[in-house]
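note to self: dont lose this again. the chain is below, predicted strucutre after it. 467 aa total, dont forget to put it in the shared folder this time
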Amino acid sequence: MKKTVLQSALILAVAVLSLSLAAQINYSGMTGNLVAGDFDSDGFVDDIAAFNTADAIPTLTLWTSTHGLMEENQANIQLTFDFISPRSLNAKIVSGDFDNDGFKDDLASIYEIGLNKTSVTVWINQDGAFIAGQWWYGADFDANQTYQTLVSGDFDNDGFEDDIAAFYNYEMKRTKVYMWLSNGTKFNWPGTWWIGNDFDASRIQGTLVAGDFDHDGFNDDVTALYDYPDGYCKAFVWLSSKNKFNWPYTWFAQADVNIGKAKGNVVSGDFNGNGFVDDVAAIYPNDEQTSSVWVFNRGRIGFNAPETWWFGASEAFLTQSRLVVADWNNNSRADQFTGLLIDGTTATLTTWTSENNTFTLPETSWQGIALSTEDCDKNGGCINSDLANGLELYPNPSNGNFWVKIPECNQPNVHVSVINYLGQTVKTWYESSGKEVAVDLQQLTPGSYFIQINGDGLQARQSFMVQ
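---
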């Protein structure tokens, strides 16, 4: 730990010296899209990649680690010909070894390319450049129904973490688990590995993790923390049998565990040091000023009741969304997790390390300048990423008739504006927050527009096209 603390001090010193030279970025556009991997091919999963979807064209930021020293840079990425919306990527990014080269250095996403048309695109890392390829196309598949329910793993036990599982949220509380298995160059047609006719996948959004919960040596199992009403939580575990998931076991059930507060901030790892990725950790907000790290430790017959392994201030609110587990200390164990914290105009990568059934004081491994609230307002809004990810618009492009899912906020009605690319407001009205509404803009001239949502605690913008 002394080495890590010293490295953190050096990082902070370098970061502070370079703050005046750093470019300001709307980091809120990437907090829900963080993934960990070995993007510099040094043999350690100690790097982070994040798509930034705040602007009209997505960008890819890489943080690569050298003995704990983090360096930020913009990666070279290709976009496919059918790519239509940066926001369609939100919370639908995973990392893996999709080309089977022995490094977890590739990216994949399931995203919409039209009305009920979906692409599974894989970005193969070729010496730091990410080359896009469409590995699957579905003409009757709605990618938005897999929001925050994607995980990657070695589900077919071929020795590569190159497969993707997605929980598809049908109406009437019906869920299917679709599995895309990779052969190193493409995905096979997705198999249906589980069907739940009384299971609402929206209640596990942001709590789904993959791991080796049955200790068979493969990260091929899935755990989800199900958010029941009135603060009741169940931990369901799907164990893989190489071609399907068994009926999920209930490994934990307890009242007064409102896991919905921790959505997006849930990870799996080897936090107890037993050599298996079989524990679950979550940053949980206790109240408006304090937060804790809860750990669901694997016991003999399931998960033990969550224990508090760390207690702190407002980190649960500042992490925004999506933690990642990586190996910053290069000990070949999944015993650390990192979140992107945004506090005012400061963005930091902050890491928690498990030691003897507790997490040490979080350490900063990188620091940069985030856009101020005023500057973000000019560039689409400094928005809570969970709310930003809740703004969905489809189909896109359209003939002017489309659906908009309005995020929830602190007031019943929100102000909706439609803005053209000259910055002119062409239509305004009010809608109820938290609703999915039909919009008729057929009178608009074909072209590109923004729809902007403003409310108490909510500022969000999405681009769309009228054909």
